[in-house]
Design a protein that fits this description.
8-stranded mixed beta sheet, single chain, 764 residues, OB fold (Dihydrolipoamide Acetyltransferase, E2P), 5 domains
Length: 764
């Protein structure tokens, strides 16, 4: 059974990595072939496992086709829609902006009306008090969902697609009319009523945020700071309504029901074990529904149901076989769970426990508990690396204390206080106080956490780390632990750079309508611009740059250059230096950026590992303001030259013509001002003679960058043009002999990522 489950998982994973979703006829054909092979090979133990790859692929493809969100009937670009929509989920209000998941039922445009069901994620600035189930008629602006495409970045579009959401937008000016108060969603309305009651009965703060997360699965009050503390202490799982919570509720309810039932005469007719299982499942299901029935809760409930069925039937199955059955059922019901870190964390943790049990049998209780925690931490290390999550070195001591605390005290007290909340608020306030004390302790623990060297999240590194962990957790009798320990230690030794003296790499990140460029030599790193930050607290350092650095195992930055003070270039600087150690900071407008910086001086130059850097902007730009103060950085190694223009406009370009002509041709130029007509003048484009040009532009940006006339100039000069809104990030490696360009989408394309913007343009 474990072999079949493993091949089934491989088939589901194969579909998730498919760049284009197959049509229904192909899926039906492969499903029939898989079924035929399973029947034909059922008596051949080894060969019979192989068709399960096709079975997993077919089920995953069928699920994707059935859940594929419908497209809107017209192109969505830059148009106002008259829409009638219903709020389906709890509204979230942050800094005056209400975020909603709605179902659009009626659309009108240019006198034509269409009816359907389109799930959309909306934002509404200055909205009235909104409630689940309300039906509104408003004017909307919509656009397709899109993710930042970089190594380590969260796949926002994939997350929304898995919820049936294909578009996002906002409520714009125009008619706004409330049509109905209770059009749908009685459960969500009930949850909102409970949330409002909790707001009124508790005080604002971290305790309230934790209370909402544990009772209703509502993490809207958990901010970035709280998430970082939870990650550093390895306690994020305590807030996600998953196996720990669902299992605890089932155990409490089932144990109490079974104990009461044994005291009744009916116990002779109906076994107490059956009553305990039924009540445990019922209460666990009710808790999962109240908490929003999220993916972790659904998965945990399904696992509990399968386990309860096996227990009730007293099936004579080994623990690995029971584990495999649960894995098959979970993946068959929701194949996209493979893309969720929670799926891997939960199943790998259970697999680690099953593997460790033979090692710990017969040992004292404290040794078993300690061994399980260490084993789980070790087993989860490759998973955390694969999902670019920081390893929590404090997870063992913290969880040794918190898991029993949650199981034996906090969750029972929380359930009791919720039951009494209709009569008195005191128990609920008491639980909130306990949660606030707990949060204060977690903050102190996070402050003690030392910086742990990170391995790069490359597939080869994850595979080697997984082999080391498997060897260390091997069953008794296997003489692999020493090899596993040696491999684990070897992976954490300092690695020699793969860049020779004079070689360098450039990564132009996809930060939307902004700019951020990573430069690496054999022993140094430089960041040129940080991308934007927004008023709601969202910034591209937390969303893109820091995850990218973690993915590549980077712990420090030698120099940060903020070309000038505009928000799309320097907005995320403060968030960046909060997340990583940064050395020298320079800027063309040091008085406009949010962190201490010195001015980049024209002519300033330095050399790192045989690679030369120079600021080449004219000296008079120091007396300017805005775009023309941009630090223009030239980089030259043994194999080529790169020019980073920032937002420098045509007046700066004219002053640079003599210098540019003397150093042309350039291998790569990051086009000034994202491809605006204010930059990339005809004389400059001809003088620089670039072989490649990169437009760092936002997906379907309102400025329509890069402008067609600018693109025609670069095309006429013979440059290959690259767009971050189509390619995602661009990795450029320039060594003494070759130059390679690797777009992110070349190796990281999924079927839900619509490729409607070209990556590379080689023709005029």
């Amino acid at each position: 059974m474990p072999g079949k489950a493993g091949f089934f998982l491989l088939g589901c994973w194969w579909l998730q990595r498919t760049p284009v979703l197959p049509n229904g006829n192909i899926v039906a054909l492969i499903a029939m072939l898989a079924l035929l092979l399973v029947v034909m090979l059922r008596d051949r133990k080894r060969l019979a496992r192989l068709p399960w790859v096709l079975v997993g692929w077919s089920i995953a493809a069928t699920h994707a086709l059935l859940t594929w969100p419908p497209a809107l009937p017209w192109p969505v670009e830059r148009a106002d829609w008259q829409a009638e929509w219903v709020i389906e989920r709890l509204p979230v209000v942050r800094q005056g902006i209400t975020r909603l998941v709605v179902r659009i039922e009626r659309l009108e445009r240019q006198g034509e009306t269409r009816y359907g069901e389109w799930r959309v994620r909306l934002s509404w600035r200055g909205a009235p008090s909104l409630k689940v189930g309300q039906r509104w008629h408003t004017t909307l602006r919509l656009r397709p969902v899109h993710s930042y495409r970089n190594a380590g970045s969260w796949d926002y579009a994939g997350w929304l697609y898995r919820q049936g959401i294909r578009y996002r937008g906002y409520v714009s000016r125009g008619e706004r009319q409330l049509l109905d108060e209770e059009a749908c969603c009685w459960l969500e309305r009930l949850r909102q009523g409970w949330r409002d009651a909790l707001f009124s009965q508790t005080r604002e703060g971290a305790g309230q945020a934790l209370l909402l997360a544990l009772t209703l699965g509502d993490r809207s009050r958990v901010d970035n700071t709280m998430r970082q503390v939870l990650q550093q202490t390895g306690t994020s799982h305590l807030l996600a309504i998953s196996g720990l919570h669902i299992g605890l509720i089932a155990a409490l309810a089932g144990g109490l029901a079974g104990w009461i039932w044994r005291c009744t005469p009916a116990c002779r007719r109906i076994p107490a074990r059956l009553v305990a299982v039924a009540f445990g499942l019922a209460f666990a299901g009710a808790y999962a529904l109240v908490s929003g029935f999220g993916v972790p809760a659904r998965r945990a409930l399904l696992m509990l149901a399968v386990s309860a069925w096996l227990l009730w039937r007293r099936e004579r199955m080994t623990l690995p076989d029971a584990f495999s059955v649960v894995l098959l059922v979970v993946l068959a019901s929701e194949p996209t769970a493979l893309l969720d870190a929670g799926f891997w964390l939960s199943f790998v943790a259970v697999a680690a426990i099953l593997t460790l049990l033979p090692h710990l049998r017969g040992r004292p209780l404290w040794q078993r508990w300690l061994g399980l925690q260490f084993g789980i931490m070790l087993a989860l290390y490759p998973v955390l690396l694969a999902f670019d999550m920081p390893p929590a070195v404090l997870s063992v001591p913290v969880n040794l204390l918190l898991v029993p605390l949650f199981s034996l005290l906090l969750m029972p007290a929380l359930l009791l206080s919720l039951g009494l909340s209709g009569w008195t608020d005191l128990p609920l306030l008491g639980v909130q106080t306990l949660l606030e004390w707990l949060w204060a302790a977690l903050q102190q623990a996070a402050a003690l956490a030392t910086t742990f060297p990170r391995l790069p999240g490359e597939p080869a590194m994850i595979a080697l780390l997984s082999l080391a962990v498997l060897a260390l957790l091997a069953p008794p009798g296997w003489r692999l632990r020493r090899l596993g320990l040696l491999l684990l230690l070897a992976l954490h030794l300092p690695r020699a750079s793969d860049l020779a003296n004079g070689d360098f790499e450039i990564d132009v990140l996809d930060v939307g309508q902004g700019l951020s460029v990573m430069v690496r030599t054999a022993g140094h790193r430089l960041i040129y611009d940080t991308g934007p930050a927004y008023s709601g607290g969202f910034n591209l350092a937390d969303a893109v740059i820091l995850p990218w650095l973690r993915h590549h195992g980077v712990m420090t930055i030698d120099r940060l250059v903020l070309s000038h003070g505009d928000r799309d270039h320097a907005g995320a600087a403060a968030a960046l230096i909060r997340g990583i150690r940064v050395g020298d900071v320079l800027s063309g407008e040091p008085y406009r950026v949010s962190i201490p910086a010195r001015r980049c001086i024209a002519g300033e130059h330095w050399s790192w590992d045989g690679v030369r850097f120079r600021f080449v902007q004219p000296s008079w730009t120091a007396r300017q303001h805005g775009n023309n103060t941009s630090c223009v950085l030239a980089i030259e190694g043994k194999g080529g030259r790169v020019l980073l223009m920032g937002d420098a406009e045509a007046t700066v370009e004219r002053a640079l013509l003599p210098w540019v002509r003397s150093h042309a041709p350039y291998d790569f130029v990051v086009a000034g001002h994202h491809g605006s007509t204010t930059s990339s003048s005809d004389a400059f484009v001809k003088a620089v003679a670039a072989r490649n040009v990169v437009y760092a532009a936002g997906y379907r940006n309102r400025y329509r960058f890069p402008r067609p006339e600018v693109d025609r100039r670069w095309a006429a000069a013979g440059a290959v043009r690259w767009r971050t809104d189509g390619c995602g990030s661009l990795h450029i490696r320039i060594d003494a002999h070759t130059m390679t360009v690797t777009p992110y989408i070349e190796k990281n394309r999924h079927y839900w990522q619509v490729q409607d913007v070209a990556c590379r343009l080689s023709q005029p």
